[in-house]
Specification:
This protein is α/β, with parallel strands linked by helices. The chain has helices at about 15-20, 40-45, 70-85, 105-120, 130-145, 170-185, 200-215, 235-245, 255-265, 285-290, 290-295, 310-325, 330-350, 355-360, and strands at about 55-60, 95-100, 125-130, 150, 165, 190-195, 220-225, 245-250, 275-280, 300, 365, 375, 385, 390, 400-405. Helix content is about 40%, strand content about 15%.
């Protein structure tokens, strides 16, 4: 198995090397010792933390605060990918060293830490952020200091930057595709929109409302938002019981999900009878929510741990070997795992760690051994990927009940939704 760019160049190690992280013999000319043409001076002309034997990168996620329930998996996935890449010979013959910073679920802290990683540590790239609020906080920093961010979360779209590779899905691939599915399969006519109170849920629900009202010609019967960390949902649950929407469309994030789904069940709302569609609850959140409290809900994402393919089975096995048998893997965790691999492939295509060369080389990069299946970087720095719908089960996993036949082209600026 190889991965090729649009010009047919080979970049990927074998599936065993990629997904099992085995210290197999490196591919000739790709993963061996640095060649004379790969000296630090040749592949690093802009003062990044690159030597003849090492390259430093940053990991920037919340491992404390309300977002830790969601972001810890991203940290684990990025460390697994880095360990596997190093075991297979590194990047341009260099071992990856990482510097980890905690965004602490606080957007100014994310900006401060990103500046530290780029200016003081001079990292070659950063794998980081989860919420759109954190991404928006760091984006000016990455653009000012010309850094490269690999951002793993599904998000609202309406953004494109030379300095970001978006490895999660944007709105057309998730929000709009999910609403189309639930309308068709469940005959839904009325929707109640819920979200946490910051940019991603508000913008996503703005897009959802436009799609529901303007394109599907259906009705939104309620829309409410709650601060991050909010734990009292009984008032809105009573409103839901009164309005009886066909679909509860929930974009609540982080630890608040635990209280919301437990209170839904306590109020007698059976998600096997009441359709609920979420685009924010992955297996990571269900670990805290409890499968019994979300059984029957639907989620629209590109990845579920239960995906039945060889790439994913090897990935899940390697992840559990590194982090424990009881660990679970959600959509953003898998998208975070793609970041180091896509960066490695791009560096080797460009023959350089320089950010401008990485940005220029990114379009067309393909990764066929991704756990979700084949992905490809679009010119807009988002990924072509499939969209899937999963149904939550008691055991905390999702049963995949739908997937698109083909990859969906990313379109971060869809007409009629801005």
């Amino acid at each position: 198995m190889t991965v090729r760019d649009d010009n047919g160049g080979r970049f990927s190690p074998t599936r065993r090397q990629v997904l099992a992280g085995m210290a197999a013999l490196p591919a000739a000319g790709l993963l061996g010792k640095a060649s004379p043409g790969w000296t630090a001076e040749a592949v690093n002309t802009t003062g990044l933390a690159v030597t003849d034997s090492t390259v430093k990168v940053g990991i920037l996620h919340s491992v404390t605060g309300t977002m830790a329930i969601s972001e810890t998996g991203s940290v684990q996935a990025e460390k697994l990918a880095i360990e596997q890449i190093n075991a297979a010979g590194g990047v341009l013959g260099r071992k990856i060293e990482f510097i980890q910073e905690d965004g602490a679920s606080d957007w100014p802290t994310f900006a401060e830490k990103s500046r530290k990683l780029l200016v003081n540590d001079k990292v070659a790239c950063v794998f980081g952020c989860w919420t759109s609020a954190s991404r928006k906080a760091v984006l000016p920093v990455f653009e000012q200091y010309n850094g490269m961010l690999y951002y793993p979360t599904f998000y609202e779209g309406l953004e494109q930057s030379k300095n970001v590779i978006y490895t999660g899905q944007e709105a057309t691939q998730q929000i709009i595709a999910g609403l189309d599915w639930v309308q068709k399969e469940k005959g839904a006519k009325t929707f109640y929109l819920l979200g946490s109170d910051y940019i991603w849920p508000r913008t996503s629900n703005k897009i959802a409302r436009k799609h529901i009202e303007n394109f599907l010609k259906l009705k939104v019967v309620g829309e409410e938002y709650f601060p991050l960390g909010h734990t009292q949902f009984n008032s809105v649950i009573n409103k839901i019981k009164l309005t009886k929407p066909d679909v509860i469309y929930a974009i609540i994030v982080g630890g608040s999900n635990v209280a919301f789904y437990k209170q839904l069940k306590a109020a007698g709302i059976d998600l096997k009878k009441q359709t609920l569609m979420t685009i924010s609850v992955t297996e990571d959140e269900i670990l805290g929510i409890g499968g019994e409290n979300i059984d029957g809900a639907f989620a629209c994402m590109k990845y579920f741990q239960s995906l039945d393919n060889a790439n994913n089975k090897a990935f899940v096995s390697a992840f559990k070997k590194m982090w424990g048998d009881k660990i679970v893997i959600g959509d953003v965790t898998q998208a975070a795992y793609l970041g180091p691999w896509l960066w490695k492939l791009t560096v080797e295509k460009a023959g350089s760690f320089d950010i401008d060369k990485i940005a220029a080389a990114s379009p067309g990069i393909e990764f066929k051994d991704a756990p979700e299946g084949y992905v490809k970087v679009h010119e807009n720095h988002h990924l072509w990927s499939k969209t899937r719908v999963g149904k939550a089960k008691l055991d905390g996993q999702y049963e995949v009940i739908y997937e698109t036949a083909d990859l969906m082209q990313p379109d971060p600026f869809p007409k009629g939704y801005q």
